[in-house]
């Protein structure tokens, strides 16, 4: 072939590829556009409002890494007080962003640049997912049209993939999808190359580099993509598990069809080996630590050559084909039994992998860990619709079709992988709905194949080919004789008819648009318009108050902490914790710059649940001291509650303790039997704090409340008044309330024995709401009250509160009234005041 001919071939290839290139590029731009629709909800004045909970901790990591670049935050003393915690998240997601921002910011990026880049980061990654989706679909079905349509569908798919790649949702989930899809795409091409070049052990023995290079190139890239995936998510062993399942199944299929399996062992060992090197090289892997990753990858490296060796052995012995799967089943059972009794680490790994998606107890209350199709204890398909539009259902039918063709026809390795990959994702998402963001790619690829099949059946390929042929056809130099004019006219008319769309062409396009495109796109746009979630104005307000009105912890927020030998950080005496429900831990860290006890890693979830469901102030206080390794210190100085904790989330707090009985009881009403809060609920620490404003408590005082918000608070107070004879003002109060745990000043005095003595005050909050505070006791000749509020106001270096009594405490008994002032130092030091 001459240079001119080569250039012509290259130009033709580029020309033919341009429509698909622009198709993928447009898909990326559409994806990014949809994902930045709610920008106004994210950029609120100078404040960048990230969505959800975990994105705030990524902001914490990004700020810390930028300050200590390139060192990653391996241990964090700013959460899980009083212990601190080793890093739960793998480093790659944050390191990529920080590296880019450091370059843009010339080594010293401003906080504004960091926050803005972090907000747009997931939207950009969400758009880029179109690239590996295109290649995975194109290579799996050997059709660029399937690839480009799949890229478009993944751009508009709604549900969790959209929400977790939205502007402001600064979390690793979208990176999981991006890297895992690259793994799938490159593996598919590696499998195609293995078949094209008939890769086996002899290929390597004979050093047939022309065959080895293209195969190994894609195997190595697959390994690099898997390494990136495992360094971007602490649960990255998941997709290694997907590959492992496929390799085992493909071994069985190949053996049953008398095909050699060496290519699977070679590919698996190299892919898992590259990922293993990356895991071992990374100083931090997060989550479960490296143990599960290392064991899982080594298992693949060891098992795959064994599977191949057994296949070769069974074939050399001319044993019946079904002996192979039977032997593997027996071998697996033997390994499980043997490891249970003699190799506990192996058995533990098997149990952990097999239960990877299963949740129970308090963990079952985590929204993303709940089963996809179960809502309120009932099975419903609506989550499937809101997660994928019609793509979810269509993809299931395509899977059935592919499974049928796999049984009735000779299937390719890449289609087998697509089936296994999709089925594992379905299995995962049915148990934990978070995995719907993984299956979005599978749904897009499978539905794209269905859409292109419909267009094929309608005759679009023939129509396009006819149009191309007509365009390329040269005009005839010698017209036909006049006597054939009539025949020529008929032929021309027939040819023209084949070059015009007919009713089936139009109907097929309309069908694809109405079934695959419109539902997914319209749901995605509607979901994008809702915003990104995250802390409301009340929480932001409360966290900023916490940051600027409470004492410094003495722990540097941007410090790169050393990992303590015993796993417990040595906090200075000035440090203190904040007790709230785990949902809000990262907000307390990243916005409030204070140290929560419980966090969205679910650390402290049980003990926080026990604190808030404690049946008395004394029991709650005892829990604070039980948590801290120093028996003379409490696990929290501040307690933060919101109305959700007092209402809808209360059941979750109880579930984490393992005791949910008796908090709600049935009563008969005019509209039938209703479940209402019980006396046990109203006795709980959470109710006493939030519903009753800590009235009568000795060591807990309100120091801040946010503006009120829409809630069920009035209803809870109404039930208390009507059912239990209470007298609580039926009004909405602060949506978020911050309480301080103090020593309390003790006021003692004398009163006639048997006399009822009351101490009271009127508390005015920072929102200018007033409520009554009082305690009552029966004198035995003396009385003693411990009170948490200072009547003289805040002092330097301590909590700078506005919520405080309007005047002195009033002690009353018989006809006697005594006014008593209590200083802030008295309250903090636990001073006894005698009157």
UniProtKB/TrEMBL annotation:
Its main location: membrane. Pathway: Protein modification; protein glycosylation. It catalyses: an archaeal dolichyl phosphooligosaccharide + [protein]-L-asparagine = an archaeal dolichyl phosphate + a glycoprotein with the oligosaccharide chain attached by N-beta-D-glycosyl linkage to a protein L-asparagine. Its EC number is 2.4.99.21. It is an enzyme of class 2 (transferase). GO terms for molecular function: metal ion binding; oligosaccharyl transferase activity. It is a multi-pass membrane protein. The keyword Heme does not apply. Residues 538-646 form the AglB-like core domain. The chain crosses the membrane at residues 20-37, 57-78, 90-107, 119-137, 146-167, 173-192, 237-253, 265-286, 292-315, 322-343, 384-404, 416-431, 437-460, 502-521. It is found in: Cell membrane. Residues 744-833 form the Archaeal glycosylation protein B peripheral domain. PANTHER family: DOLICHYL-DIPHOSPHOOLIGOSACCHARIDE--PROTEIN GLYCOSYLTRANSFERASE SUBUNIT (PTHR13872), DOLICHYL-DIPHOSPHOOLIGOSACCHARIDE--PROTEIN GLYCOSYLTRANSFERASE SUBUNIT STT3B (PTHR13872:SF1). This is dolichyl-phosphooligosaccharide-protein glycotransferase.
